Model the fold of this input.
Amino acid sequence: MSTEAEITAIPQTVDLASEYETSGVAEVLRELDEELIGLAPVKQRIRETAALLLVDRARRTLGLSHETPTLHMSFSGNPGTGKTTVALKMAGLLHRLGYVRKGHLVSVTRDDLVGQYIGHTAPKTKEVLKKAMGGVLFIDEAYYLYRPDNERDYGQEAIEILLQVMENNRDDLVVIMAGYADRMDQFFTANPGFRSRIAHHIEFPDYTDTELLNISERMLAEQNYRLSPAAETAMKDYIALRRKQPHFANARSIRNALDRARLRQANRLFETAKGPLDAAALSTIGEEDIRASRVFQGGLDVDRSPPAREDTA
Done:
């Protein structure tokens, strides 16, 4: 039974606006807006989750709530839509609000969890979980853990360990599972234990052509490059064509295209420069550096194999 002193020690009110600023939540959400172009529905869901957690913390402060809410999440969407970046921001958000001790992100795939022989999977999975405790475990392409067509596969063992830890350690670990939307749906259907433990499902839309152009300009600016006016037009055309090709990976495909454009620019300058070059020449991607892509001839300006992982972008 609470003593009179304990009862009177409990505050009577909480200023949510003040908590929003002093907790650091406002800073994390501002960073999300500034660092990620587009993704309006994703940002809205993160704001809603932040509001839920702020209110939950306020309820605990007033002695109204004691059970840790379920915070495990699913991020579904195509590659290159920013899932890893948002997971990193989410880890920071949870740490600032006191829902995880450290706020670090451990990003893994099936290979980090599943062993190749009997007795190998459990220690691998437990070691990863040990590293992730106090933070967020991000499982990319999580559906590859489940391979029912292979009787000798050990993914099911990793799944069982994950399910147990997600339930028993939810006050010290948040698990975010990510991948293509249709495959994630199939995975949850085949493994209902995961669906019941995941409270937040967030869908990441593909970027629009305009957003991808803005992303390309930001990526170049971060390395002190820029597109010439004609190159900007060429980049718009490139994006429209590349989107229709196989293995398009949103911002990641744009990053790869810009890497190749910088390579072409460097070779062009090396072969044609007749004298000293100023900063503008060294920093400008020209139209020819973009239109030299095989995409404009109907070819693939991309590696022949599809991307293996869904990295940040």
In short: The radius of gyration is 24 Å.
